[in-house]
Amino acid sequence: MTTVSIVNVTSYTGSELLRLLAQHPDFVVTSVTGRSTVGKRLEEVFPYLRAGVPALEGRRPAIDPALVITEEPAQTDLAFVCLPHAAAAEAVVKLLERGTKVVDLSADFRLRDVATYEEWYKHTHPAPALLESAVYGLCETYRDQIPNATLVANPGCHTTTSILGLSPAFAAGIINPDIIIDSKTGISGGGRNPSPTYHFPEADEDVSAYGLSGHRHMPEIAQELTAVAAAHGHPFEGDLRITFVPHLMPMTRGILATCYADLKSDGNGKLPTTAEIRSLYEHYYANEPFVHVVDQPPHTKWTYGSNHCFIYPIVDQRARRLIVVSCLDNLVKGASGQALQNANLLYGLPETTGLSSLGVHP
Amino acid sequence: MTTVSIVNVTSYTGSELLRLLAQHPDFVVTSVTGRSTVGKRLEEVFPYLRAGVPALEGRRPAIDPALVITEEPAQTDLAFVCLPHAAAAEAVVKLLERGTKVVDLSADFRLRDVATYEEWYKHTHPAPALLESAVYGLCETYRDQIPNATLVANPGCHTTTSILGLSPAFAAGIINPDIIIDSKTGISGGGRNPSPTYHFPEADEDVSAYGLSGHRHMPEIAQELTAVAAAHGHPFEGDLRITFVPHLMPMTRGILATCYADLKSDGNGKLPTTAEIRSLYEHYYANEPFVHVVDQPPHTKWTYGSNHCFIYPIVDQRARRLIVVSCLDNLVKGASGQALQNANLLYGLPETTGLSSLGVHP
Amino acid sequence: MTTVSIVNVTSYTGSELLRLLAQHPDFVVTSVTGRSTVGKRLEEVFPYLRAGVPALEGRRPAIDPALVITEEPAQTDLAFVCLPHAAAAEAVVKLLERGTKVVDLSADFRLRDVATYEEWYKHTHPAPALLESAVYGLCETYRDQIPNATLVANPGCHTTTSILGLSPAFAAGIINPDIIIDSKTGISGGGRNPSPTYHFPEADEDVSAYGLSGHRHMPEIAQELTAVAAAHGHPFEGDLRITFVPHLMPMTRGILATCYADLKSDGNGKLPTTAEIRSLYEHYYANEPFVHVVDQPPHTKWTYGSNHCFIYPIVDQRARRLIVVSCLDNLVKGASGQALQNANLLYGLPETTGLSSLGVHP
Amino acid sequence: MTTVSIVNVTSYTGSELLRLLAQHPDFVVTSVTGRSTVGKRLEEVFPYLRAGVPALEGRRPAIDPALVITEEPAQTDLAFVCLPHAAAAEAVVKLLERGTKVVDLSADFRLRDVATYEEWYKHTHPAPALLESAVYGLCETYRDQIPNATLVANPGCHTTTSILGLSPAFAAGIINPDIIIDSKTGISGGGRNPSPTYHFPEADEDVSAYGLSGHRHMPEIAQELTAVAAAHGHPFEGDLRITFVPHLMPMTRGILATCYADLKSDGNGKLPTTAEIRSLYEHYYANEPFVHVVDQPPHTKWTYGSNHCFIYPIVDQRARRLIVVSCLDNLVKGASGQALQNANLLYGLPETTGLSSLGVHP
């Protein structure tokens, strides 16, 4: 039995971890922290937990709804850190010092370059020394390194969707390093704190773009796509030219990225066909339990509550572009589900443990 | 391993059974039927099934996404019948004849009185001889009889919500048999066939009442509440006076019934308090894994995708009434989840097998 | 030209007044107040006002998007007060002292009895002396008194829906004074301030009841239905026995009340028919421009953005009850539209001035 | 008084015309046609019309809710044709022959080149001879030609949004003719016929892309942007390279296009700034009553039910791209509102007649 703490359990990524861990046979949540809710029981903050969590396979339930929220985490084997950036790094340092393995859901350890971090997050990095040892927690790319890590930097939701959508094309060297990502996210991506933007009467029946002058997920996407291209023998010169625009959709969960890139042609000016590219994508993800290449445009609702990602590549022959549509549940594969996938790798468990459910549809 | 067929798998109750059975360790779906989709593979009709279903505990997966939809069910141990009424009864007769146990999700075997059935469903009952042996599949009430049944009549969604909400009060004899049930349902309750009423632009941002001249779930509610009162020693004279009005809500899943009843007072004209009634309710449902009495008004979203039901009773001292708010997911505890709960009972399995997940929240 | 101020324009009832007044040929908004937004121009707070407001019929536009929000209202002929209760009363006193006519959208002057007000609003009434002269602004009932008023107490949204739905029945003396009102409202009824309850991910795809231990609109409904019954020669003895339960729906606008009452039978035990009651309702509202008796269950979406109310009465012969479904847009006929209707009456204008648009459908 | 017919009034563009015309002082609807609804009164098909339409300015109301739907239009001065393509062209021919002016909301006369039409619409054009005289009804571009037309080809919804968003940039010659348009539309754009894609439980809480192998609005966009560039002295060589991907959003109304284009730099490699481009846009639309350049990302909800379009251009300095976000209500400025704007021009009325209302917000 592995003991687990959830730091800042009252965030949406924290409560989603509770939901997922309730089905996990090996991890037991023994410590949860919060800020304004310190001293309350989990079931007071999340009344639906009164449904209770059953014991699986003869051991104690993975979660006790009566667990009391504390300010500081108790000693556990593993911690999921669901704090905002900067606060997260401080907590991570303390946890690592006491020997706890950490999956950090914040942005603090995702960017390898301190300067880039400080440019985008506008403050001094609290623990730059850890950047080198932190492993970027995109399991599909870093599956080999994660088991040996003590700190996993769990990717962002826009990031995961986009990188999974474009990695096979960059790995195969079939597109130019000049891309546009138009990403559409459900509102839970904005977190659990009420604000005018997320007030129901304002957000309902509304679509808008945000982050147009630059969104923090962009350098993260650039870093990883550059790495994928290089790792597969198709490095490009200079920086990736990337425009990334996130949009807010009137729904709770789900993220869908539409990615556009110039296709390279072969020596005869011939473009690859959709069938060829789909085959290339299927091969790339052939053994992935959570990434699925499909032959029709996917729907975010296919992924509701699940850890699955669906990807649909298609060639726009007229404009000589590759279009890739990629979607997943922003709180699962885009956050807490992926965090649990990382935790499974950290503890040598099958990657799908506790994550095998299908999306809730309709 | 128990083999299972889903008759009319292309209904929402059928596809929901697929989702739930994918997590079930003992049942394996070996036959699925449809009408217009005969000859297609499951994953063609439900593309999200391409995510695949993992093998649990070393046995074959509960569902094969490549299973081909047939017109008639193959021989299986158990069948879930998801056909509309009348068509369901005909299928049930055939299945029982070949020795298959049946959980019927239609209304055909819910009403014990043929005349009542024929009054409300406007056609001759196709198999009245089966009415006597059919067991009403509300596990909380008929848990003792279900294991020995060969035909279980799975209750309706409005019905389950209302009966669970009012049973403790009728069992305790604290209310008069004169009730109003104002029920609010998500749109998946209307099924998978498109129609103007359920067309997104019409149903979105809209609330309306329907069935005002009489809804078929009403006699079912009356039958069961009358039975509960009698079984607990508080039979009432004459018919239950009941007004039941369903409403359509702009959401996919969830049903919430607000139930109103006159409270009886004691010899001194004193009414029971909310605390006394809550205690009575908690006692009534003390051992139920899926029914939870809560101390704040419940939200349908607490139940999203889960088999749980939350109930909140409160006394309106001013108007001398009992108000009970009861909610659940219409496709799970209101249909397919309850069907699986019944199937577990039929096969001597723990009632919660495959049904232990929490609601997806937010 | 009549000058108008909107006190607390940054509320939803305030901004809705802006939208409606933009189409009004006689009123010109010359003063708007706010709290945290003092010093900003209207178009800064409501960017969609940059669309501009055209001049109608050769006069200046009714609204200037560049109007600056102030803390105190300037001198105007008329003021709409959109403050919360208590704060509203204080503002009203000052406005009346300077000779401004007031339509108050708060609850401060709706209840005629100070004790009832103080019981439900839990504070001392700031201006009890004004209660006598204030006129309750339900135009359909008080059309004769409103033109001579200086202070109109604009009814609440649940209240308007329910009273319009039940008034004809009480006026005709056909029901017993024992009613249940199950009201369903869109989320804009909760105002423009973000809070966890109205946070999109929580409120979306969710239905819940609230105010179960007593909602402030209840005494208002009781007061007015009692008055209607008495005014039409069918006073009842004692208090109206009323249970009122509001519910929150996952939509922005719209309110639908389902009202239940015992029908009286005639000397021979015969109940009125639905046709008789519909005829009675049609007669009652025959000359109303905004209240429409319909022959099928109405939809809140029929009223989106309009000042119309649709009412559908039906007899439940089995349970001997009258059911009335009534719906409207909570921000228009349930608030700002009705306020404008009152203002039209105050200034001798046709009641429909600026209010003639149909609902936006779909 | 100008008499008007609406051909296929039972479409969403038809019913939206009814709503808008109800506020119009000069047009009177004297004929409406349908298919399956022939013989019914308007108010039977659209029950919310029972609210009635008031007489404006002492003349008869613009719409009579009791008007009976016929198979063929009666003789009128003007007709709005709301039929699907091909059927529309046939109706247009007949109407023109009898001297009726026509605003055609279908795609039949939008493309000037017959071959392009036949390539995209897969059938022989029913009336190619009319293509030359038809005027493309984008008022902002063809304001001078529309008044003299007898046939106006009303633009599509995606088209209007995109063209308005990109025209100033092409007119100024500041971008290369290589663009990506990622368009997001509400579901009413799919029309009034129910289908699985638009079935509430499927479309709710879902985002998906469609038309990825080529959408018919694309050649229309290409035609008009090419024309704008040429008309303003910045023609480009060869075809516009354009990728257009529409997406379905879980909301009823609203369309938002995010447009991406390479910015040209000046001789010194310097890009224009956002301020410079916004100024250029503001100048381009300075006198437009319905097109507004804003300084923050616009929301589709700002436009709900109104004829307004909001446009936000911004420079992505890092990637050297222009991003333009453009939004409007697909049923108003994207269809019926623009049709009415065209009709106003045809009859020498102020372009804003009947179209002056603000969006319904929230």
TrEMBL record, chains A, B, C, D:
GO terms for biological process: L-arginine biosynthetic process. It catalyses: N-acetyl-L-glutamate 5-semialdehyde + phosphate + NADP(+) = N-acetyl-L-glutamyl 5-phosphate + NADPH + H(+). Residues 3-149 form the Semialdehyde dehydrogenase NAD-binding domain. Pfam families: Semialdhyde_dh (PF01118), Semialdhyde_dhC_1 (PF22698). It is found in: Cytoplasm. CDD domains: AGPR_1_C, AGPR_1_N. Coiled coil: none annotated. SUPFAM superfamilies: Glyceraldehyde-3-phosphate dehydrogenase-like, C-terminal domain, NAD(P)-binding Rossmann-fold domains. Its EC number is 1.2.1.38. GO terms for cellular component: cytoplasm. It comes from the Bacteria. The active site is at 157. Keywords: Amino-acid biosynthesis, Arginine biosynthesis, Cytoplasm, NADP, Oxidoreductase. GO terms for molecular function: N-acetyl-gamma-glutamyl-phosphate reductase activity; NAD binding; NADP+ binding. Pathway: Amino-acid biosynthesis; L-arginine biosynthesis; N(2)-acetyl-L-ornithine from L-glutamate: step 3/4. Catalyzes the NADPH-dependent reduction of N-acetyl-5-glutamyl phosphate to yield N-acetyl-L-glutamate 5-semialdehyde. Belongs to the NAGSA dehydrogenase family. Type 1 subfamily. This is N-acetyl-gamma-glutamyl-phosphate reductase. The lineage of its organism: Bacteria, Bacillati, Chloroflexota, Ktedonobacteria, Ktedonobacterales.
